[in-house]
From TrEMBL:
Belongs to the aspartokinase family. It comes from Leersia perrieri. GO terms for cellular component: chloroplast stroma; cytosol. It is found in: Plastid, Chloroplast. InterPro entries: AceGlu_kinase-like_sf, ACT-like_dom_sf, ACT_Aspartokinase, ACT_dom, AK-LysC-like, AK1_ACT_1, Asp/Glu/Uridylate_kinase, Asp_kinase. It catalyses: L-aspartate + ATP = 4-phospho-L-aspartate + ADP. It holds the Pfam family ACT_9. SUPFAM superfamilies: ACT-like, Carbamate kinase-like. This is Aspartokinase.
Length: 559
């Protein structure tokens, strides 16, 4: 196993003494010594060597002694999203950021540069109808080529790093144009070019600037997934495979791993898969779990998870702490800042996730952990999921007919459609459908028609489209207080809530309103909860007095 020895604030001349101590505990003296000298940065020092569990302790006077402290190879995952690596300047900044933590030994995960994934998807869609001779002229292809070549030039690198991939991409688009079809499988292969290029450029930049780095395509190092193209799930076999590969390579030849986010390999098809939009967060937490790291950091373009989407409420403020459960609900119910599945590996292994801003390193960000002190917490964040479909299903059979709910849900299971929120009474059920499971416009209508047709065999069905779910993520122990405040605001704004659902998660109350009212509602709710001193007013109130959690789901039928 590779051992990393970390020393903060040591003197430059302590390198020989560290080297001697390292050799006493079985580290290769030459490697340790060479690295010790090379890695002294003034702010800290990193010694890497191959040995069992052990470490070297450096005294203030610079002398080093061996100690029986356990140390492992990698310490953190640092994931940088598209906005963090959108240009040559941003790549330099990210390299500087990584190297500013000499005490860390990171695995780096990168997304595609800027809007490259969107451009690849658009290029693919245009290729379907443009005809093969015109495929090379698709404007988005030109934008992708220009961005990557300009970045390489500005970083002083060799264009050959991506020229092969760019040629292959053009060929692929010609193929799509010829076939006049873009299957989910081809779509995944197409978007994989984004991450494959960004990671190659970044690794080359680090290598050119004295920091040894090694690029990895996730689909080549053990990221094994289901074959659900465009939305694949990571399979359990991924964890040992990824750990073996990354640790094995490190022992052979230490270098910072630069891994493509978002991508995997289907276990049956062996084809490239993707983990759903924003899936690099999941790549990061998967690596964190595989290697048993201390922390997973996801670096974004905002100061952490905020009280609301800043595009809806400009006054949104960072949330300092969240639990995995809160973060997962928040992501699942529409906050684009985190991938919905990304909390799972972190929760399973108890590894904290820190959301940080690569544009504002000093901002403390959000720390997501297994548990936190909720005694003073009321509402944490407000989330919007728009354009959802709601179904009101009323049984045509006699009151108390058993098997009704089972029948309803088996219809959704058979059709492969997932349900978000549910509220029931004895003979009726209201629910919302997850739009991410419904792909193109045409398919939505087709699928919905089919759902209604099946349900109408056992019930009267009302299909309500253009609805929004407003999720109040917070301490549901204080639901009476949250709901009192929320309904006051909604009443003042003349909003008719059409369904309420408080899930078993105990962190989320969902309200369904019409799409046209949703943004205004959120602004009003955010202002009432976060901008007018409400939280501090109720802080310290007796939880016993105020906490009478809702114990049933309710439905309010509306327009
Ligand atoms: N509650 C929220 N907190 C923070 N950001 C949010 C929230 N809801 C939506 N966002 C949006 O998510 C963006 C960051 O996520 P994302 O685009 O995935 O970052 P990256 O591409 O860097 O991984 C922010 O720029 C912001 O517009
Ligand atoms: N590039 C992919 C994966 C990803 O995670 O991106 P980002 O980290 O920029 O959200 C996407 O756009 O979906």
């Amino acid at each position: 196993m590779a051992v990393v020895l970390r020393f903060a604030g040591v003197a430059r001349d302590s390198a020989p003494s560290i080297s001697a101590a390292a050799s006493r505990i079985g580290c290769a003296k030459a490697a340790a010594s060479a690295r010790a000298r090379r890695c002294v940065t003034g702010r800290g020092l990193v010694v890497r060597c191959q040995s069992g569990a052990a470490a070297v302790v450096v005294r203030k006077d610079g002398a080093a002694t061996a100690a029986a402290e356990k140390a492992t190879g990698f310490t953190v995952v640092m994931k940088f999203g598209g906005s963090s690596v959108a240009s040559a300047e941003r790549m330099r900044e990210v390299a500087d950021l990584i190297l500013s933590f000499p005490e860390e030994n990171p695995v780096v995960v990168l997304s595609a540069m800027g809007k490259t994934t969107n451009n690849l998807l658009l290029a693919g869609e245009k290729a379907v109808s443009c005809g093969a001779p015109k495929a090379s002229e698709i404007p988005e292809l030109a934008v992708i080529k220009e961005l990557h070549i300009r970045t390489i030039d500005e970083l002083g690198l060799d264009r050959s790093i991506v020229s092969g991939l760019l040629d292959e991409l053009e060929q692929l688009l010609k193929g799509v144009a010829m076939m006049k079809e873009l299957t989910p499988r081809t779509r995944d292969y197409l978007v994989s070019f984004g991450e494959c290029m960004s990671t190659r450029i970044f690794a080359a930049y680090l290598n050119g600037h004295g920091t040894k780095a090694r690029q990895y395509d996730a689909f080549d190092i053990g990221f094994i997934t289901t074959d659900d193209f465009t939305n694949a799930d990571i399979l359990e076999a991924t964890y040992p495979a990824v750990a073996k590969r990354l640790q094995g390579d490190w022992i052979e030849d230490p270098a910072i791993p630069i891994v493509t986010g978002f991508l995997g390999k289907g276990w049956k098809s062996c084809a490239v898969t993707t983990l759903g939009r924003g899936g690099s967060d999941l790549t990061a937490t998967t690596i964190g779990r595989a290697l048993g790291l201390r922390e997973v950091q996801v670096w974004k373009d905002v100061d952490g998870v905020l009280t609301c989407d800043p595009n809806i409420c400009a006054n949104a403020i960072p949330v300092p702490y969240l639990t995995f459960e809160e973060a997962a609900e928040l992501a699942y119910f529409g906050a684009q800042v985190l991938h919905p599945q990304s909390m799972r590996p972190a929760r399973e292994s108890g590894i904290p996730v820190r959301v940080k801003n690569s544009y504002n390193r000093r901002a403390p960000g959000t720390v997501i952990t297994k548990s936190r002190d909720l005694s003073k917490s009321i509402l944490t964040s407000i989330v919007l999921k728009s354009n959802i479909t709601m179904l009101d299903i009323v049984s045509t059979r006699m009151l108390g007919q058993y098997g009704f709910l089972a029948k309803v849900f088996s219809i959704f299971e058979d059709l492969g459609i997932s349900v978000d929120c549910v509220a029931t009474s004895e003979v009726s059920i209201s629910l919302t459908l997850d739009p991410s499971k419904l792909w193109s416009r045409e398919l939505i209508q087709q699928e919905l028609d089919h759902v209604v047709e099946e349900l109408e065999k056992i019930a009267v069905v009302h299909l309500l489209q253009h609805r929004s779910i407003i999720s109040l993520i917070g301490n549901v122990q204080r639901s009476s207080l949250i709901l009192e405040k929320a309904f006051n605001v909604l009443r003042r704004n003349g909003v008719n809530v059409q369904m309420i659902s408080q899930g078993a998660s105990k962190v989320n109350i969902s309200l369904v309103v019409h799409d046209s009212e949703a943004k205004e509602c959120i602004e009003a709710l955010h202002s009432a909860f976060f901008e007018n001193g409400f939280m501090s007013e109720v802080e310290g109130e007796d939880l016993q007095q105020n906490g009478s959690p809702l114990n049933s789901n309710g439905v309010i039928y509306g327009n």
